[in-house]
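Example for tutorial group B:
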C-alpha cells in the first residue's frame, strides 16, 4: 500500500481516532510510521542483585505468603504479598488492585514489573502476569500521544501500518553508506525501533535514524553553502599583502597565534571568487575587533569599501574610535553613521560614500537604510550577528551589492551547535586570549552576605573605579520573590547617597534613554550601574572592575559569562560576585562552574550539557534544528560524520545525477533549498 494512504484506511481509525491522530500531525501511513517512540519499557528479566535502587525491573518469582489488602478509602487500596525472587524474599505491593488477591495463591509463579526499592526490598508493581514470562517482546514502545488515543491502540495501528506499507518503503540512504557504517535497512530499522526484538537491534535502529536525520540536515546546510559560493557576482578581493603586513606591524601589540590563524582564514576567503560567508567566534576580550580592522583594511587596499555594523550606537562609536586610532597613520577616511547623525552631516557622509571617498563606514542599522548607497562595497562585518535579522542582512544584497560577509559574535557556541545552527557558514574561532590579561576573580556568595559584598564594592569605588549590578527581572513576579532592578536601584541610591552616583537601565526604557544612561556610565558620570541584561553585548568600559549579579541562578552559564565579560577590560584586577541561593543541583553546578573557569567555550559546552540545545540560545528562533531521534549533545560524532559525508556528496557530480542519490535530492527539493531546475 502507498505510504501516502490516509490513516483512515486502517482498521480501528474512526472519527475520534482520526481527530486524535490529526492533532499529532499524523494524516498518512508515512506520518504514522515516522512517529518514533520517545522511550521503550524494558521487560527483560533482571537479577535484583544487579538492579540499582529506584530502577524499574522485571522479575519472575513464587508467591510465599497469603496476600493482605488494606483499604485506604475513596476506592484506594494496597495489596501486599511476599514473593521469592531467586534468593531474595521481597514484598510486592499492588496499589488500587484489590482483585489481584484472589489470583495470588501460595506457590503460584508470577511475572512482575515495577519500581525496585533496594533498601526496603519492595517492588511497587506497575504490571504483572500470572505464570512465567512468555517469549513476548522484551521492549515495549511508548509514544507521545494526544487526544483520546491509548498506547495499546497506537501500537496496533503502527503494526498495521508497517505491514501494509512494507512494499512501498524506499530507502533514501545509498547502499555504500549502509555497508560502510553497518546500518540496517530502512525497513528493518522501522521494524526494530517500533517493535524491537532485542536491545541490540533497537540500538542499531537508533544509530541508523540518527545518522540519516543528521545527514539530511547537513545536506541542506552544505547545499546552501555551495549555492552561496556559486552565486554570481561574488567579489574577488585582490588585497595588497605588503600593505597588510605593514599595518599589522604598526599595531601597538602583537597578534596571538589564534588571531593570526583567523586572519589567514578570512584573507584566503577574500581572494576566492565566491562570496565569503564566515562566522568569527571569539570569547569576550579575545581580540575580534583587530581582526575586523585587518579584514576591512584588506578590502581597502583592493580599492573597495568596507562596512562594520554594530547592534547599538555606543558599540558603533567604540569601534569607530578604536579603528580611527589604528588607521590614523594611514590617512584612511572613516565615517560613523548612526541614527543620531542627521541633517547636513548625514547628507555629507552619504555623498562621500556614494562617490567612494569614504573607505570604511561604521554604524548601526542606519547602514541599511534605503538612502545609503556605496560606490564599491567589498566587505560587510556585523558585530554580534544574531542581533541582525536575516532580512536586514539581505537588504545589502537587494541593493545590488554582493560583498564578502563576516559575522562576529562574542557568544561562545559549542562546535556541535555552530555546525548545526550555522552549518551553511564557515566558522573561525579565536580560542586564545591576549597575553597579560588578568583573569576575573569570580565568587559565589549567599544573599545573606549582601552587606559584606557592598563593602567590597565600595572599596573599588573609593579607588576611582566603577561597578555593575545586574538583576534578572524588571517587575516582581507574582510567584517568585526576586529583587528587581528598580528596588535595587533605590536601595543602592540610599546606601551610596552623597558619595557615588547610581544609574538605572532596564528593558522598558526607550532606546534613547538606554543610550544616554550607558553613555553617562562610559564617561564615568555614573559610578554604579544597576541594570538588567541589556548590558550583555559588547560595551567596553575599562574602568569598570566590579560586577554583582543578583539572583545569578536565574541565568544560563553562557549568559553569566557574557555579563562577567563587561568587567576585566582594563589593567586593574576585576571581580565578579554571583549572589545566589540555588535550590536545584543544576543551579549549584552552574554557580560552581563559573567560579572554576573563565573560558567561555568550556562554559558553553557545560551549558549545552545542562540545558540541552533547544534552550541554549534562550529563544526558539535560534536556528538550532529540532530532531526526532538525534541529540546534538550525545550524537556529536555522528554529526561530524554526517557533515563530512554531506560535503563530499554535494561537491560530487554523482550526487546531482546518480540514481542512487535521487531520493536524497528529492528530499532537498522538498526542503526548498534547491530549485527543481538544478535537479533535472
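The residue assignment follows.
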Amino acid at each position: 500500500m502507498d505510504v501516502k494512504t490516509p490513516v483512515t484506511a486502517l482498521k480501528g481509525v474512526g472519527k475520534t481516532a482520526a481527530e486524535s491522530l490529526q492533532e499529532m500531525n499524523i494524516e498518512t501511513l508515512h506520518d504514522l510510521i515516522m512517529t518514533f517512540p520517545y522511550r521503550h519499557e524494558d521487560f527483560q528479566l533482571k537479577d535484583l542483585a544487579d538492579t540499582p535502587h529506584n530502577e524499574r525491573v522485571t522479575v519472575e518469582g513464587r508467591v510465599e505468603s497469603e496476600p493482605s489488602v488494606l483499604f485506604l478509602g475513596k476506592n484506594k487500596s494496597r495489596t501486599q504479598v511476599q514473593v521469592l525472587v531467586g534468593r531474595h524474599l521481597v514484598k510486592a505491593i499492588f496499589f488500587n488492585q484489590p482483585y489481584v488477591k484472589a489470583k495470588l495463591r501460595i506457590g503460584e509463579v508470577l511475572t512482575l514489573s515495577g519500581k525496585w526499592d533496594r533498601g526496603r526490598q519492595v517492588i511497587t508493581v506497575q504490571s504483572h502476569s500470572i505464570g512465567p514470562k512468555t517469549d513476548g517482546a522484551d521492549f515495549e514502545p511508548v509514544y507521545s500521544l494526544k487526544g483520546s488515543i491509548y498506547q495499546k491502540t497506537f501500537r496496533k495501528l503502527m503494526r498495521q501500518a508497517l505491514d501494509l506499507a512494507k512494499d512501498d518503503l524506499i530507502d533514501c540512504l545509498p547502499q555504500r553508506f549502509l555497508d560502510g557504517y553497518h546500518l540496517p535497512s530502512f525497513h528493518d530499522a522501522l521494524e526494530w525501533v517500533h517493535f524491537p526484538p532485542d536491545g541490540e537491534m533497537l540500538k542499531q535502529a537508533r544509530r541508523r535514524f540518527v545518522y540519516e536525520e543528521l545527514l539530511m540536515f547537513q545536506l541542506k546546510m552544505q547545499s546552501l553553502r555551495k549555492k552561496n559560493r556559486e552565486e554570481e557576482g561574488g567579489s574577488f578581493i585582490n588585497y595588497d599583502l605588503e600593505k597588510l603586513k605593514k599595518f599589522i606591524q604598526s599595531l601597538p601589540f602583537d597578534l596571538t597565534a589564534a588571531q593570526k590563524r583567523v586572519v589567514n582564514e578570512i584573507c584566503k576567503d577574500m581572494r576566492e571568487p565566491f562570496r565569503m560567508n564566515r562566522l568569527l567566534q571569539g570569547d569576550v576580550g579575545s581580540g575580534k575587533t583587530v581582526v575586523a580592522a585587518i579584514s576591512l583594511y584588506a578590502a581597502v587596499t583592493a580599492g573597495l569599501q568596507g562596512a562594520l555594523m554594530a547592534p547599538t550606537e555606543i558599540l558603533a562609536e567604540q569601534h569607530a574610535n578604536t579603528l580611527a586610532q589604528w588607521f590614523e597613520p594611514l590617512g584612511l577616511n572613516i565615517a560613523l553613521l548612526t541614527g543620531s547623525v542627521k541633517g547636513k552631516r548625514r547628507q555629507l557622509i552619504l555623498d562621500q560614500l556614494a562617490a567612494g571617498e569614504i573607505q570604511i563606514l561604521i554604524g548601526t542599522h542606519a547602514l541599511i537604510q534605503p538612502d545609503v548607497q556605496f560606490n564599491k562595497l567589498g566587505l560587510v562585518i556585523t558585530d554580534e550577528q544574531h542581533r541582525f535579522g536575516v532580512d536586514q542582512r539581505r537588504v545589502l544584497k537587494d541593493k545590488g551589492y554582493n560583498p564578502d560577509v563576516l559575522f562576529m559574535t562574542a557568544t561562545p557556541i559549542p562546535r556541535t551547535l555552530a555546525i548545526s545552527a550555522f552549518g551553511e557558514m564557515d566558522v573561525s574561532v579565536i580560542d586564545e586570549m591576549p597575553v597579560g590579561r588578568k583573569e576575573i576573580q569570580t565568587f559565589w556568595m549567599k544573599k545573606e552576605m549582601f552587606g559584606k559584598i557592598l563593602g567590597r564594592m565600595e572599596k573599588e569605588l573609593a579607588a576611582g573605579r566603577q561597578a555593575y549590578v545586574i538583576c534578572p527581572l524588571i517587575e516582581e513576579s507574582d510567584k517568585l520573590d526576586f529583587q528587581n532592578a528598580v528596588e535595587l536601584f533605590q536601595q543602592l541610591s540610599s546606601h551610596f547617597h552623597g558619595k557615588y552616583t547610581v544609574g538605572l537601565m532596564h528593558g522598558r526604557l526607550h532606546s534613547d534613554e538606554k543610550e544616554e544612561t550607558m553613555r553617562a556610565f562610559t564617561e564615568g558620570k555614573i559610578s554604579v550601574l544597576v541594570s538588567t541584561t541589556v548590558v550583555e553585548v559588547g560595551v567596553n568600559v575599562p574602568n569598570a572592575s566590579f560586577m554583582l549579579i543578583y539572583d545569578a541562578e536565574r541565568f544560563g552559564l553562557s549568559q553569566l559569562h557574557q555579563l562577567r565579560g563587561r568587567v576585566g577590560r582594563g589593567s586593574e584586577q576585576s571581580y565578579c560576585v554571583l549572589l545566589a541561593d540555588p535550590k536545584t543541583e543544576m543551579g549549584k553546578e552552574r554557580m560552581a562552574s563559573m567560579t572554576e573557569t573563565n573560558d567561555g567555550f568550556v562554559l558553553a559546552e557545560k551549558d549545552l550539557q545542562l540545558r540541552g540545545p533547544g534552550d541554549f540560545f534562550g529563544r526558539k528562533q535560534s536556528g538550532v534544528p529540532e530532531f526526532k531521534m538525534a541529540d546534538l549533545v550525545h550524537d556529536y560524532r555522528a554529526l561530524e560524520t554526517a557533515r563530512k559525508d554531506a560535503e563530499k556528496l554535494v561537491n560530487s557530480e554523482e550526487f546531482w545525477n546518480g540514481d542512487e542519490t535521487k531520493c536524497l535530492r528529492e528530499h532537498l527539493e522538498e526542503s526548498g533549498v534547491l530549485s527543481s531546475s538544478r535537479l533535472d
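The first strand starts at residue 39 and ends at 42. Compare this with the pattern of hydrophobic and polar residues in the output above.
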